[in-house]
Automatic annotation (TrEMBL):
Keyword Endoplasmic reticulum applies: yes
Entries under Pfam families matching the protein: TPR_EMC2
Protein name: ER membrane protein complex subunit 2
Subcellular localization(s) per the UniProt record: Endoplasmic reticulum membrane
Amino acid sequence: MSSSLKLLAEIRQSSERRPFEVLKLSEPLLNKGSISQAGDDVWLVYEQVFIAAIDEGEIDVAKAVLEILHKRFGGSQRVKRLYGMINEAVGYPDEAKKLYDEMLEKDATNVLASKRLIALLKSQGQYSIAIQELVSYLDTHGNDFEAWLELAHLYLANHLYAQAAFCLEEVILQQPANHYFHLCYAEVNYTMGCLDIALKEYLRVVELSTDNVRGFYGIKLAADRILDITSHGAGKSRDSSHFKVENAPQKATLERLSQLATERLVAIYSGTNDATKKTVEAWLKL
C-alpha cells in the first residue's frame, strides 16, 4: 500500500475530515488508477474523497466519484445519502430532504440518514426541529457521543445552558479523558453561575492538558469569583448576583489555586514578546 493510502487510512481512523489534505493525497491515486491498491478499503477511500470534495466545493470531483460508487453499489442507502449530500452542496435542499425522508421511511434507525437530515435542518436555521430530531435519534442511539455533543451545541445556540450541560455530562461519561469536553462543561457551568462545579472541571482540564491556557484562566476566574462571593455575600459583590456556590473550597485553598493559575499563565506566556507578557500580567492583576 502506498504512503498516500496509509495517510488517508490514518485520517479516516482519527475521524478527522481534513478535506484539503485528503484531496491532495487522493489526486494522484485517482489519476493513475492506483487507488485500487487500497484493496477491500477502496470504497471507503472513494467515499472519503467524495466527502472531502463536497467540503472543498469540488463538485465535479464529487460527481465523478459518486458515479463510480453508483456503478458499484447502485441505489444502496449509503449511496443515496451521498446523492443527498451533493444536492445540499449544489443548492437543492428540498431534494436532499426528500431523499433522507425516504431512507428513514424504509428504516427509521438509519443513522446516516438521520444525521444528514439533522445537519440539513441545522444549515437551514431550523434549530428547534433539528433539536427534536436529535432528541429522537438519541432515544435509540444513546451511546453516540458525537450526537450528544451536537445537541449540546444546538442548545447553546439557543441559550439553553442547563440542557447543554446535561448533554455534555453524557459526552464526558463516554469520553472522560478528553480535556476539551471537560472545558466545554466547565465554561457552560461558569456561564450558569455554578462556580464550584466549574472550578472542579477547570481543574480536570489542566490535569488532562497540563498547559491549557483556557483551563488556567478558568481556574483563576472561578477561584477569584468564589472568594469574592464568600467574602462579601452573593448579590453584594461585583456582578455576582447570579452566581451560585454550594460546596466551596476553603479560602486558603482558593487563594492558592488562584496564585498557582497565575504563575502557570505567566510561565506559559514567558516565551512570547514583552508586550504580550506585560498585557497578560496586567490582566491577571485585575
